[in-house]
């Protein structure tokens, strides 16, 4: 049971196990000449394991399947195929008390603090909703003290319970959303880009709050983001998604220091650097064009149409996972070559 920096404990026990999960949608008018229907492959064969107490960051461009995956993890949607197991029990086939308990133990913080809070309800009513659904979680007499405690945990005052969402700033609203997420003392907290809609000035405050709550409550966190710099400072492991698939995953230090997939390398190059004299110059790798449509993904490696390292085999063969050691896996035919390459070598062939 290793002890991580900051006092968090991560065990070897897998609390969430995602095995070969897909989520396909039928789209009307998606066929030839706008007729018939087509299949949108939003999530296409994702497998992940989440250890108790860790923070897993999932990153990628808009439309890569990150948010769809969160809805599958929280059982808001059912996968087309594959399994998601929480403590060995299938999240989507569980019934009765087992399903209720899983919903209680897996909670979510949504991206938009302006859209995720009902403007017609007071903060107190919003925070009380989880307890109305899970009536055995708390006696009625303890409700008000618990709601006041929740607000104090997220840095707000107890008297805010009687106010409405429009009376708060974006950062304060997200704190209310976080309070709702931890109300039932969940084991797993899914955070879907919790700071992307906030001003830069308050992002660090909300991230520090989440890190503090994770330590205090021993939370296991899935953190969805497109800012890789944020993920490195908050998460233990990272998984990069592209076109509905995980293309690279591993411990943050391993992925950032020895990046083994061209797409992850391109994302990392977009992080602004201060440019100190003792640091190597890091220029941005510009990828030309948009990701292919999930309705008609390319054959072979999903990234080959934008990859500067692509070779003929990439267009025909789906790359297997290459293990670079200690759980660092890259789905690239040339993973070792990418990991050992000078980052600046990619600039001459960026697409």
TrEMBL record:
It holds the Pfam family oligo_HPY. Residues 16-268 form the ABC transporter domain. Keywords: ATP-binding, Nucleotide-binding, Transport. One of its GO terms (molecular function) is ATP hydrolysis activity. InterPro entries: AAA+_ATPase (IPR003593), ABC_transp_ATP-bind (IPR050319), ABC_transporter-like_ATP-bd (IPR003439), ABC_transporter-like_CS (IPR017871), Oligopep_ABC_C (IPR013563), P-loop_NTPase (IPR027417). One of its GO terms (biological process) is peptide transport. NCBIfam families: oligo_HPY, PRK11308.1. Belongs to the ABC transporter superfamily. This is Dipeptide ABC transporter ATP-binding protein. It comes from Saccharopolyspora elongata.
